[in-house]
Design a protein that fits this description.
alpha+beta, 2 domains, 22% helix
Length: 348
């Protein structure tokens, strides 16, 4: 009986070999699956594809927090950018055209373990390619590959907001004075850099009651520095309001019953004796035109015509007569928009 129990408790060498072989197969299968994951889902190509797809989905939060995208102070300094550079454009609703039809063209493994991944995509109406340098970082769970951009793909867009500190990009309106102080705040033309997700196309413009800037489309490639000017010009409503102020000013001048209305662009000197109050009327008001100057919108010297009617006695022979005369004058001014939206006019 004892011998029978001993026989039953023994493990056959053949069984041990079978279990060992099965373990090897399982480990091999696991390693193969792990290698497959690291080549596909967790590969460098997928990392780049995911970044581009996030831009395509307007998920700028995910795109901008992808490892290697953010720039630290040292990197900003190296690029000659201020530490407080605006990140306001790093949000959804700003990109006008994002990468579409994304295809990985090549994925080259470099000697240092990094990868050079080239992607092709359609950006608006253009077909473009970008090569991204990525490098490995600490694996997930110690086994699954993770990556970061060796060079940030963020673009820098230098915006010149001409004649108006505000501009609109996508659905967002920004103020170029946001990080400025002192005398810089009063500049008629403002310049400010912005970090922007790339590759992407951005559309800049501005439209308000008083000012409007034409739409400007700007493609930004990964790691590129681009410049755009948002050129705000007076609208018809702006010109009309200035015209109204000019007409009111001249009407107030004409209401003064004197030969030389105070602080006014017209007047007359008469050698004979004036026997009635002068009556001024505006025959032709200067037509307002506005062009951008160095500090405001300027109206060049523009001609107008005032008319005077006054009773006069000739000092030589004593006879009385009515003087009716047109007096030509010119008017120049500078117009600007106050912070409260009203218009300030300075006569020249």
């Amino acid at each position: 009986m004892g011998n029978a129990g001993e026989v039953q408790g023994r493990v056959s060498p053949l069984a041990v070999a079978g279990w060992a072989g099965l373990a090897v197969l399982l480990v091999s299968a696991f390693l193969a699956a792990l290698g497959g994951l690291n080549q596909t889902i967790y590969g460098a190509s997928s990392f780049v594809q995911g970044y581009l797809q996030a831009i395509a989905d307007d998920d700028i939060g995910t795109a901008s927090t992808t490892p290697g995208v953010a720039l630290d102070d040292a990197e900003l300094e190296e690029l000659g950018l201020p530490a407080d550079i605006s990140t306001a454009m790093l949000r959804s609703g700003v990109v006008s055209a994002a990468p579409e039809d994304i295809t990985i063209v090549s994925d080259i493994t470099n000697p240092d373990g990094g990868h050079s991944v080239t992607a092709s995509y359609r950006l608006g109406t253009e077909i473009a390619q970008s090569t991204f340098e990525v490098r490995p970082i600490e694996p997930l769970y110690g086994v699954l590959s993770r990556w970061e951009f060796a060079d940030s793909p963020l673009a820098v867009v230098e915006v010149t907001a001409a004649h108006n500190p505000l501009f609109t990009v996508g659905t967002l309106t920004l103020d170029t004075r946001a990080t400025k102080t002192g005398d810089e705040l009063a500049a008629f033309t403002q310049v400010a850099p912005y970090l922007a997700i790339a590759p992407a196309v951005y559309e800049f413009e501005y439209d308000s009651v008083l000012l409007a800037a034409p739409h400007v489309t700007v493609p930004a490639s990964a790691g590129e520095q681009v410049a755009v000017t948002v050129d705000a010009q007076p609208t018809a409503a702006f010109v009309e309001r200035v015209q109204t102020k000019v007409d009111e000013y001249l009407a107030a001048c004409a209401a003064q019953p004197v030969l030389q209305p105070a602080d006014c662009p017209f007047g007359i000197e008469i050698d004979d004796r004036v026997t009635s109050e002068p009556v001024w009327t505006i025959v032709t008001s200067p037509v307002v035109t506005l062009t951008a100057g160095e500090t405001a919108f300027d109206m060049p010297p523009t001609e107008g015509v005032a008319h005077i009617s006054v009773e006069v006695q000739d000092l030589f022979d004593g006879h009385y007569y009515t003087l009716e005369e047109d007096r030509r004058f010119t008017l120049a001014l500078a117009a600007s928009i106050r912070p409260d939206g009203s218009i300030a006019i300075q006569l020249k």
